[in-house]
Specification:
The protein is α/β, with parallel strands linked by helices and 404 residues long. The chain folds into three domains: 139 residues, Spore Coat Polysaccharide Biosynthesis Protein SpsA, Chain A (Alpha-Beta Complex); 217 residues, Hexapeptide repeat proteins (UDP N-Acetylglucosamine Acyltransferase, domain 1, 3 Solenoid); 34 residues, no CATH class. The protein is built from seven helices and 36 strands.
């Protein structure tokens, strides 16, 4: 009997996971080496069939490899698991029996999923929240900052598992390895001479198609996804998604993928969305002068992260000018363009056009036009569905109806 696996975004998660929750289902966020969606799929050995989200403007969301956003929770001829996108299952998680309707709860008592038996209509979240409860082992993420706070431990665990599956290491000719060569996982990556692979603190994994230019220093734990290019500098403790270009000093950061940081500049304890372009010298602070815990402002609300080190959350399609400086714990909304003589504050609104005149907004047509230029550069076509999705995100962020 087949089981349909769906992930849902709980309304309570939308605010704490800004700026990314505005432009993508939360299962498409990276947690360690893998997307949250990929973790559930691997754990249950079932592909994620789709997303359920309160954000109606994501109906046309589409990215390579991503499941669609659905209007309903499937049909009753199949058993269904509805699982909370921001809940990370424990390593020993086992698929539950689907004989009776069950509401899953985490250790904190919060609802983290539902089991819907075959031949039963999905009654909706309000009714399903009254079902009998059963515990589910794992961790419910509190907000975007935990993607960074948990990165080191999760990255190490992911890489150890991948190393066990990978087989014998293959050290690139001309590269210098500091530490155990068995911790170098290069696959079919191209690594030029004069690259240093420092695995004394953890493995370095380079997926097929990765290119590493000479005079790069890669420090584990580090995972770099397919077809990404590393152009130089020191890159450490990070998980970099597919089709990125990265140069400079990068530490303890996550790239969702398809982002461009091709120049020098420091990026630390940051989360970088898709289609971001960071101008030369863009640098973030990741430590307060007081060495105290960092607070973040997301959607106008302040959150205590408990983290001493926290850099920037840079939303999808953000662009920064050369020499842009970002403060500790800065959140930049989707589609914002940062330029001018002013410094960014704790939170930059979505689609902000410059920093000197607050309230200026990049218009919808112009936003879509820029995306149509950028995305094909990474071999991603912009079709009519993508245009509707981009315009709908703009409308949700600005409260306006896109026209023209």
């Amino acid at each position: 009997m087949s089981t349909r696996l769906l992930l849902y975004d709980a309304p309570d998660d939308l605010g704490p996971f800004l700026p990314f929750s505005l432009s993508r289902p939360l299962g498409e966020l990276r947690y360690g080496v893998f997307l949250l969606r990929e973790r559930w799929s691997a754990q249950l050995d079932v592909p994620v069939a789709g997303y359920l989200t309160p954000h109606r403007h994501l109906a046309d969301f589409a990215e390579p490899g991503a499941p669609p956003v659905l209007a309903e929770a499937g049909e009753k001829h199949e058993a269904r698991l509805l699982l909370r996108s921001t809940f990370v299952p424990a390593a020993d998680f086992a698929p539950p029996e689907l004989g009776e309707p069950v509401r899953f709860v985490g250790a904190d008592g919060a609802t983290v999923g539902f089991a819907v038996p075959r031949r039963m209509e999905w009654p909706g979240f309000t009714a399903a929240n009254k079902w009998p409860a059963a515990p589910l082992r794992g961790k419910r993420l509190a907000g975007t900052w935990e993607l960074v706070g948990d990165l080191d431990a999760v990255l190490r665990s992911d890489l150890e598992r991948l190393r066990a599956e990978h087989g014998p290491a293959s050290v690139p000719r001309g590269a210098t390895v500091l530490g155990d060569p068995a911790l170098v996982l290069t696959g079919e990556a191209t690594v030029e001479p004069q690259v240093v692979l420092d695995v004394r603190q953890g493995p370095v994994m380079l997926a097929p198609g990765v290119e590493v230019r000479a005079f790069s220093r890669l420090v584990g734990p580090l995972a770099v996804a397919r077809d990404t290019r590393l152009l130089g500098g020191q890159i450490s403790g990070s998980a970099i998604g597919p089709r990125c270009v990265v140069r400079g000093e990068v530490s303890t950061s996550l790239f969702l993928g398809y982002a461009n940081k091709s120049h020098d500049g420091f990026l630390g304890h940051a989360v970088i969305g898709r289609w971001v372009n960071l101008g030369a010298g863009t640098t973030n602070s990741n430590l307060k002068n007081t060495y105290g815990p960092v607070r973040v402002t997301l959607g106008g609300r302040r959150y205590e992260t408990g983290l001493m080190f926290l850099g920037s959350f840079i939303g999808d399609h953000v662009k920064t000018a050369i020499g842009t400086l970002l403060p500790t714990g800065c959140a930049i909304g989707v589609g914002a363009n940062l330029f001018g003589s002013s410094r960014a504050g704790a939170e930059v609104p979505p689609f902000a056009w410059g920093l000197d005149e607050p309230g200026l907004v990049l218009q919808a047509g112009r936003f879509v036009e820029i995306a149509e230029r950028v995305m094909p550069r990474r071999d991603v076509a912009v079709d009519e569905r993508t245009r509707r999705y981009l315009a709908a995100v703009w409308g949700a962020a600005t409260g306006a109806t896109p026209c023209g």
